[in-house]
Amino acid sequence: MLVQISDPHLRLGPDDQGSAAALAAAVDRVLALPTPPDAVLLSGDIADSGAEAEYALARELLAPLPMPVHLLAGNHDRLPERTSYAVRCGELRLIACDTTIPGEDGGRLDVPWLEARLAENPRAPTIVAMHHHPVPIGIPWLDVIGLPAEDRAALAGLLRRSPHVRRVVAGHVHRTSITILGGCPVVTCTGTNWQATLDPHATHAAVTHEPPSILVHTLVAGELVTHVQPI
To answer: Left (φ > 0), alpha (ψ -120 to 50) or beta: where does 57 sit?
Structure first.
């Protein structure tokens, strides 16, 4: 079982916007699950400004989790190393793809790198994770800072050739959305604090404090099921 938390955007000081309390609540929800997950994925925008003090706060808030916590960089993050890797999470294999471009809100996917990782173990049920959503979700101001069309097309072709990929997961959009790319389900995760407003006409950032949630990805009788668990 893999739990996904996304986009805490931790801030410090009087203008923290409740970000620390929101991430703490998400951690408490993971700890309250009846079955502990094998690992937790934090799918980007850990910090809001990328300041080291924000990451120190993240380490403090995530410390109660006894299972491995796998980090993935978002466009707000300023991490010292790229967060592209492959790791086992119980019966699942997680391939994390760092889609960030320094100084930009949009992303790019290194499809040849992902293809090489997928070829290493073509039998393992696999989750491919990235921060940027790889498909349009119908909210203009977010879709312009997702992955470009050429990366989307290349990923779709790779997914068609890779039936062991059971799910592509992302953050970035601060909403739960579900679609299909290359025959594979794509799911995005809400933020721990604020969410993007569902407005198909919004060309500038529009946010709301709709309830946050985490995603629980688990194999059931050999099939991957994703649960949306409110916090």
So the answer is: alpha
Residue 60's pLDDT band, with cuts at 50, 70 and 90, is: very high
Is the pTM higher than 0.90? The answer reads: yes
- Torsion angle of alpha carbons 43, 48, 50, 52, nearest 10°? -100
Q: Mean pLDDT across the stretch 201-227?
A: 96
Query: How many distinct structural domains can be found in the chain?
Result: 1
What integer is the mean pLDDT of 108-136? 98
Domain that holds residue 175: 2-230
Query: Residue 13 pLDDT more than 90?
Result: no
Which DSSP string do the residues of 169-202 spell out, in sequence order?
A: EE-SSSS-EEEEETTEEEEE---SS-EE---TT-
CATH number at residue 223: 3.60.21.10
How far is 74 from 172, CA to CA, in rounded Å?
7
